[in-house]
Amino acid sequence: MTLKLGTEIPGTSADGNITTLWVPTIKDIKAPTMAELEAGTDISNYVMLGGWSFDPSQDAVSDQRENAVQDFGAPGRKSAGDISIEVIDNTNTEHQEQNAAVTLMHEGASGYIVRRRGIATDTPLAVGQKLTVVSVICGEKQVINPDASTMIRSKIPLFAKAPGWESETAEISSPKG
Q1: Could you give the CA distance from residue 93 to residue 99 in angstroms, rounded to a whole number?
Q2: pLDDT tens column, 90-122
Q3: Do 100 and 59 contact (CB within 8 A), yes or no?
Q4: Cα dihedral angle (17, 35, 52, 100), rounded to 10 degrees?
């Protein structure tokens, strides 16, 4: 199918349509179950706008043949890149009891960052929805120096670990596993 020049393509605002979970265990990152996701913690309200950094890349494998005048290639190793998440940090404040993101993602903690895009945050998770799932270990919290009129926040460096990640290719499976 060819689109006619000038065809309007609708888009969806990111505002209010991203959910971020911290999930302690997932058996199959390609098909997390509702039970596994429900055992996690919704940290969406802690994540700063633009605070999720995940930039996977893939190397190219060179395929140069002596009998060819062209160079070919193949998909190579993948890298998760620099992963981090910037969150509200209520340490030492009157709201210190509401500090789930910092508490759960302390240095050395292992778990899964699960992200759902394109559906209102207050819409429940459902079988068949597509997710990004990243298996991580947390690094040392980095306090962010505040600018004028900003919230107190910190950046948590994350490091990909086995079994790796699925970039919006994971699909929520059976209701309870």
Answers
A1: 10
A2: 999 999 999 999 999 999 999 999 999 999 999
A3: no
A4: 110
